[in-house]
Structure formats: structure tokens, C-alpha cells
Design goal:
By secondary structure, the protein is α+β, with helices and mostly antiparallel strands. It has helices at residues 14-27, 39-46, 95-109, 125-133, and strands at 5-8, 52-58, 61-70, 79-86, 114-121, 137-148, 152-162.
């Protein structure tokens, strides 16, 4: 998507970020967050002081968002962690790939040595395929760790990549 760009999120972006987060939350298929999470709680989570938040824009519209943070504190703070959500109408346009590549660059520039995704829902095949394509390896599998609203209990993956 040549016209897409990524920039740090601003307070004024919160309504657009909520517009992207709400359908993902209500579907309950990809994040281990409450499906009935309120707007206030979701935005407080996404814009946590520990998160560096970015938005992807195309044609003047916000079409995706991600956060970057240390995966752990103290002895584990050299490994980054991210969460990504693409606007449903923009799925399949390379937004998630662009955000992930951007996050790898930002993490590397911030001094992180690796990136780890702690809880990738195994049934989220598009994400699993994309992360593997970008160089992440499945380093762990937690059996039946996620309660999918349509599929029942599915595995969660831990994925890792050195920077």
C-alpha cells in the first residue's frame, strides 16, 4: 500500500483507534480481552503509559494501530512486545505487514534485541502466516489457552524473532 504511512498516535486519534478496536473486541476471536470491554477501558489499555502507540494512515484515514512496549521489566526489558489491529475494511491491503515492519525498526532503534508475541491465537491463521513470513518462529504452544466464540478452545502460540 504505497500511500500508507505510520506515525505516533496523538490524543486526537483516540476516536479512530476505538473505531478499529471495538469490532475486534466484540468479535472476541484474536485478543484475550473482554468482549464487553468499555471504550474507556479499551483506550486506557491501548494507550497505557507503558505503550508507545502508533497509527497507520491511508488517504487521510486511520486504518490500523499498534503499540510497542518492553515484553517484561528488569532482566527481560531488552525484548519488545507489540499488539496490532487493522481496520476491518483495510484487511488484506498490507497494513499489518507495514505496521509490523515499522515496529521492528522502531524496536531496533530503541535498543531492543528481540521481539516476542506472547499469545497469538492459533486460529488467527492470517496473523500466524504473516508473522512467520516476517521471520518470527513459533517457540511455544499453550494448548487450549484461548476460548474462541465459534471454535471453542484453541491453542495460543508464543512467537519470537531476534532483531
Amino acid at each position: 500500500m504505497p500511500d500508507a504511512s505510520i506515525r505516533p498516535a496523538a490524543d486526537a486519534d483516540r476516536p479512530a483507534v476505538w473505531r478499529i478496536l471495538e469490532p475486534m473486541l466484540r468479535a472476541g476471536e484474536t485478543y484475550a480481552l473482554p468482549r464487553d470491554m468499555t471504550r474507556e477501558a479499551a483506550l486506557a489499555y491501548w494507550f497505557s503509559p507503558a505503550h508507545q502507540v502508533f497509527v497507520a494512515t491511508a488517504g487521510g484515514d486511520i486504518v490500523g494501530t499498534y503499540y510497542l512496549k518492553p515484553n517484561q521489566q528488569g532482566g527481560g526489558d531488552h525484548v519488545a512486545n507489540c499488539g496490532y489491529v487493522t481496520d476491518a475494511a483495510s484487511t488484506g491491503r498490507g497494513i499489518a505487514r507495514r505496521m509490523c515492519v515499522h515496529s521492528l525498526d522502531v524496536a531496533r532503534a530503541a535498543g531492543f534485541l528481540a521481539m516476542q508475541f506472547n499469545f497469538v491465537v492459533a486460529s488467527n491463521e492470517n496473523a500466524v502466516h504473516l508473522w512467520k513470513n516476517i521471520g518470527f518462529a513459533e517457540v511455544g504452544r499453550i494448548p487450549k489457552a484461548f476460548r474462541h466464540p465459534a471454535l471453542g478452545f484453541v491453542d495460543a502460540l508464543t512467537m519470537h524473532r531476534e532483531l
